[in-house]
Amino acid sequence: MQAPAAVRSVRQFLAVGAGSRFVGVLAVLIGALLLAGTVSRAVVAQRLDATESIRERSAAALIIAERLRAALARADATAAANVFSWVDLVPSRPSSPAERRENYDEVKAGGYYTGDHSGDAAVSGLAGDDTAPAGDGPAAPNQYSAAVRSATTALLELREVDPGECESARAPGSTSHCAMDRIATLIPEYVGLVAEASANTRAGNTVGGSYQRLASDLMATSILGQTNLLVTAYGDRVDADYRRATGGHGEDLLLLVLACALVALVGAQVYVYRRTRRILNAGLLAATGVLGAVAVACLVLLGGQQSRLSAAQRGDFVPMTLLAASRTLALEARTCEYLSLASLGNGDGADACFQRAVAGLGYGLDGRPTPTAGALSAALAELPAERAELAAEFTAWLRERGEVVATLRRPPRPTAGAGSPDVFDDVVGVTLRSEHFDRFITRVDGLVGAHLEGFNGEVDAGAADVRLLAAVLPIALLTAASCCVIGISARVREYL
Amino acid sequence: MNRRARVVAVLVALGIGLGLAALPGCATTGSPLPRQARPLPPADGVAAPARPGAAAGSAGPSSTPGQPGPSAQPCIARASVPPLAALPPPGARGSRIEAIRRYGYLRVGVTTVAPPFGSMNWRTMEVEGFDPAIAGEIAGAILGDPELVQFRAVDTRDREALVADGTVDIVTGTMTMTCARKERVRFSGVYYEAAMRILVPAGAGLRTVGDLAGRPVCSSQGSTSFEKIANLVRGPGRPIAVNRVGIVDCLAALQRGEVDAVATDDTILAGMRAEDATVTVLGPEAFDGVLGPAGRAGLDEPYGVAIGRTDLAPGLSPAEAAANRAADDAFVAFVNRVLLDMMTGPTWNRLHTRYLRDVLRVPGVPPNAIQPNWPDGVLVTGGGS
Asked: What's the pTM value of the predicted model, to 2 decimals?
């Protein structure tokens, strides 16, 4: 009975002598190293791509979406206070012209002045304003304009980071693009409503308040709703990228093929050792050393990348996202606070909205943390060093609001004490000039920025680890292959 | 075990060891958004939600059996209890007024979005208008100081509920006296005679109710005007009644083209006309062809001061309910004395001149001029609309 063709070929090859067998061993080794090279290239490229995607795409998009959300919430909080913007300019108040001029300038630049240029999202700034950064248009004339401009800029940046068209029917994954389109459509509508509110309020028309409620409703239910979709979608993408960047299967495969290549090298060494008068082959020995070093480098650098990403996640990503969410919720609460004040006690909806936002932060209206953790209470748990300061500012602001509510319920004062300030005057003044709220937001802004920097730094370092591995791997594998060729070819020449 | 076997075993162990060593180091790390950092579920917006039981057109619950309304006689919307012969001295004004004197101020619900009857002036930080001034006069009579008033903004949805549950002592908020509302609150005599009218864009060719067939006409939630416009015309030629939270929201809706007309009291529409020169108020002739002379009377919106009914408090015995009803009567009679003094003296005309004349552009006629036995609710011929 005749043996199969493959078996016959092997027998024929073995029969041709030791030189041919060394060639075969060399071929096996080169094949193993090629396989290791191919797998390592694919695995490292995927990991590098995912790590860079975190930094440049998913996390970048999430951060911009958070910035967009905060800017929009800030714009609404500023606009909602517009009804009070001229309170400080009441002509009947006793003050000198110089004091009034100073007051006027403060009002104009204040956080509750929308001016009459609010209809222009592209924003025309102050003529001759030299504070504007070069090439970036004139500076925003007030906080409202700055917030609207910041939102518009964030939306444009988001389109650059996440380019694409809204094709919800054909591409369900284009949710973010559809949300961006809707936001781009709704922002001018919102700005128009605020402009209408502002124009009417300045004229003393009661319909101004109606326009402001329409604007804030549009912001709360539609625009911020779309930004929430963006935040959720990009949050999921960060998670997916993280899993890709730290995925275990590719690394297992890489180490498996490296182990196989090592086993092949050691096996070849044993074979050559036994066939060559018990002499260790230096080339194979060097190749084995190089491959071992590669395996160790893989373990060290990939492990390093992973631990950096984990550290970035725990130390920066979690606090940053919690703080960003806290900032938006606090600004939403601020909007509701102004609307509630403007409703003169008839704003159940605004009061409920305030309570909802504060509860979302993890606090009760009395300034005490609720049993259910919210964005701020969870953030503070991650930030023991900042906890006391942030919590103090936040609860002080809530206490101020509580005092405003209590003041509004307080009995009116008899006119016998003529000259005593009116109760609305008191509460509007306290609300508008809440330094605690401003300091809280400023501090949160600073912390978000610091954690963003830390996050980017860690992810960059992780990407650098993978990039180093990507550069080292082909050189090392080529070196190992060369060593194999040099080591085996000497034996081949000897036996052929 | 020979040497070869040992070498193989070592190699296999090395391979497995490398593989196993890699596994824990390469465990996948996810980075989901923390639960608390995820956006909150969608909110209902920041507009005030409707109070339960104050739905559009609702007139409140009917009288509970065994707790009859203030009068068993047929209801006359404008009628109220007779005023006191004179303002009694402090201590003899009934338990409700004494309670107000004890806590030292009058809690008043006013509308703040219906100039010239009531609005908040954000430049002076004062609630101003005809209604707050009326409330000030009442406070002055009770407490000796018209400034001892704590204003609370109300709207058409919640004013009945707020006065009924005792959140405010009285409501002077363009509140039309109706028999349905009297089931829940007490009313003073009429202090202002208003009438429902329609506001349309000027020059839009909308001159009569018939021209509004199939067009959206806006009123505020819980207002009498909403019911009236919804029931004004039967059949396909009727306007489409829509509502907004507050009447001022209707003006915004008109300006935005969401509705074609606003239906409410002429007093409020005059204030809107003062805010927006592009709108016009249709006169009573706009209802020709829809309402006859008798039907026109249905457009009347007589304003009264609303006062809570303490006889409807739960758990009262019949005797207690009767005592509370007597106390409410005494309060209403006191307020009616104050109002009558205003109308017969110069005060009513002074307030009309100050707040209403320039906006309404009609001469002030105190309600007692068309109701000779004010506040019995019987008009002289030709009174009202």
From this structure: 0.82
